[in-house]
# Entry
Amino acid sequence: MRCGDLSTVSRLRTYLEKLADLLSNMGIDSSRLRESVSRLRSLEKAFIIVKPFAQGVSEIANCIKSIEALTQLSRDEIRARVDDIAKRIENLVVHTKRASYVLQILLVLIAIALAIASYVISSRTPLPKGVEFFSSAITMFITALSAIVILGSVLYLNTTILFLPLLSALISVQSLVHIVATPSKPQPLLYIGAVAALLSLALFTKMISSGFSSYRSVLMAMIEIERSIESIAMAITQTEQRKPVLEQSIKRLFMKRYGARGEELAKYVEEMTRFRT
# Structure
């Protein structure tokens, strides 16, 4: 689910580099495209596959698909569309990195807030000894998990986001334990904490679900990119095969030396050369 996942960014970069090579073989300037593709390396430390990344890859896939029919486009049209692909790659990098940094900071702040909330719940309500020990154990566990989330966010570890629903669930349990253990002493803070934790749990579950949905979208777009590049390669091959194999000067030499049979001989050599290639 991470943008920096080598199997995602590296594959995308490989496909786009292959596209640049194909266009260069056609004589189309692809220097800007290569420069844009090289910027994808900076996404290897982008924290999570966020919506801008998925949208960007889908847009790139659509742009590449638009140049599949090379024989129906002029060279100027191809150049314009290649520049559009390069521009979309640059936008993808900028928007994804920005969203990644925001998400990274948000995760750190949420982890700190949950740890503080657990401590406040545990320390502000008098409890029987056994229940107090249980609540303190939950607080220690929540603090440890929060530290893992913070460290994982700093180190761009993808799986740390999966701890957030667990943190919210633990705080909900802790709040409910306090409410049940002190029925004669209603604490508004506990009710607020329980509701907030349950809402956070729903939010985090939605966030994770959205992340997996974006990941599926990226994979589908990558498949489309691969298909389009294969189609472009095939179109280039067919175009090359339709080009005369023999230079006009060689044909003239055949005509001069063999007379009327020279043209037939030149066609025969040309057909045999095509067959071998």
User: Anything to note?
Assistant: The CA atoms of residues 168 and 199 lie 8 Å apart. Residues 107-207 form one domain.
